[in-house]
Design brief:
It is a single chain. This protein is of the alpha/beta class. It folds into 2 domains: 4-241, Thiolase/Chalcone synthase (Peroxisomal Thiolase, Chain A, domain 1); 252-400, Peroxisomal Thiolase, Chain A, domain 1 (3-Layer(aba) Sandwich), CATH 3.40.47.10. Helices cover 33% and strands 19% of the residues. It has helices spanning 19-28, 71-87, 110-122, 132-136, 140-149, 164-178, 195-203, 236-241, 267-281, 299-313, 326-329, 336-350, and strands spanning 4-12, 34-35, 48-49, 99-104, 155-158, 183-190, 227-235, 248-257, 290-292, 321-323, 352-353, 376-377, 382-389, 393-400. The strands form 3 sheets. A 10-stranded mixed β-sheet has the order 5-4-6-7-1-8-14-13-9-10, with helices on both faces. Strands 2-3 form a two-stranded antiparallel ribbon. A two-stranded antiparallel sheet has the order 11-12. Helix 10 (299-313) links the parallel strand 9 and strand 10 (321-323). The longest helix is centred in the first third of the chain and has 17 residues, at 71-87. It is globular. The protein starts with a strand and ends with a strand.
């Protein structure tokens, strides 16, 4: 069993177009939630979101490539470039055949799908663009990462709604740990800001009209976000041998299924995943310093997650720092686990705990330390990052300082 470490990290998110900008915004407690202007929101109830503002695809890609790249794929490629560059690995020198590429995404190319539906149903056009399917397919981001970097090992996409990225990272971790591959490029990507997608989420009646206030009394729901985060994993031995900078070690992974309700979270499923992760990592509950919570800002999730933390951590729950960075970058669905693990790594590397922004008043049913509104200067030696998805898919990743 190999020890598995992270040697590369790339982020493009509402809080920043690279890891440095993202870290700075986290530390400042900045919330990127605002008015959506990527398309005409007339007719929608929900007009807010956390979007990657002023993103110019032509600054990153040749114009002739763009017919193949949905916004979802563009984000994944930008994040992967940063992560791979930081890792210093060259996949074209033989390592590519022994490297996995596993990316999480909940819905894939929604922008491309929405554009084509408009062409067909609103404009009455008879044909779609010939590259419509290759552009919108959910595995497209993963495919393009492999092609751009010459990675010929196992590659696939994990789609488990809001747990997609954590599942992708967890499976990549297991493959490297077991020696199935020597390295992995993994993470998540999502670009959901279309009229149809938001209309669908509105129908669930879980969307906040103003902002996202996880764990706070008076919270009114979630706010959508977009972006990507990608990490490069390799064995501790290989990283040491080549003198690579190690950002953190992935210590464990736990996953469960609620098998109860398609949208309502279950305490046993959430707590089971956390417990399984700690057991896999061989960590005692009191060793954990920080929990990056799923923390959607909905009444059901936040109460259930709080109960799950009490159940697993017992008395130590009162000592935990817990925060939801969705309050700043929104709920990025299939990319959430990757962006939130990136936030955890940035805090671990920078000596601070990311805050829960927009927090106003204590909810008696949410009684933990949620690091309200301001980042806290404190070391993070061991942390977990939670993802709990519709369908009852739960995935938890543990990381520790090396």
């Amino acid at each position: 069993m190999n020890r598995v470490v992270i040697t590369g990290l790339g982020v493009i998110a509402p809080l920043g177009k690279n890891t440095a900008e993202f870290t700075s915004s986290l530390k400042a407690g900045k919330s990127a939630i605002g008015t959506v202007d990527l398309f005409n929101t007339e007719g929608l109830i929900t007009k807010i979101g956390a979007q990657v503002s002023n993103f110019d695809p032509l600054a990153h890609f040749e114009e002739n490539k763009l017919p193949l790249y949905d916004r979802c794929t563009q984000f994944a490629l930008v994040a992967a470039r940063e992560a791979i560059a930081q890792s210093g690995l060259d996949f074209r020198a033989g390592l590519g055949a022994r490297t996995a590429t596993i990316i999480g995404s909940g819905v894939g190319g929604q922008g491309t799908q929405d554009e084509n539906y408009q062409r067909l149903y609103l404009q009455g056009m008879k044909r779609c663009h010939p590259l419509t399917i290759p552009k919108l397919m959910i595995n497209a981001p993963c495919c393009h990462i492999t092609m751009e970097h010459g990675i010929t090992g196992p590659s696939f996409v994990v789609a488990s709604a809001c747990s997609s990225a954590n599942h992708a990272i967890g499976v990549a971790f297991q493959m490297v740990r077991a020696g199935m591959v020597e390295a992995a490029v993994t993470g998540g990507t999502e670009a959901v800001f279309t009229f149809g997608t938001i209309r669908g989420w509105e129908a669930l009646r879980v969307m906040a009209p103003d902002t996202c206030r996880p764990f706070s009394l008076g919270r009114k729901g979630m706010v959508l976000g977009e972006g990507a985060a990608v990490m490069v994993l390799e064995t501790y031995e290989s990283a040491q041998k080549r003198g690579a900078e190690i950002l953190a070690e992935i210590a464990g992974f736990g996953t469960t299924s609620d098998a109860s309700d398609i949208v309502m979270p279950a305490l046993e499923g959430a707590s089971g995943a956390i417990g399984a992760c700690l057991a896999d990592a061989k960590l005692a509950p009191e060793q954990v310093d920080y929990v990056n919570a799923h923390g959607t800002g909905t009444a059901a999730n936040d109460i259930t997650e709080t109960k799950a933390l009490h159940k697993i951590f017992g008395e130590h729950a009162k000592q935990l720092a817990v925060s939801s960075t969705k309050s700043m970058h929104g709920h990025t669905l299939g990319a959430a686990g990757a962006i939130e693990l990136a936030a955890t790594l940035c805090g671990m590397r920078g000596g601070f705990i990311p805050p829960t922004a927009n927090y106003t008043e204590r909810d008696p049913q949410c009684d933990l330390d949620y690091v309200p509104n301001e980042a806290r200067q404190a070391p993070i030696n061991v942390a977990i990052s939670n993802s709990f998805a519709f369908g009852g898919h739960n995935a938890v990743v543990a990381v520790k300082r090396v």
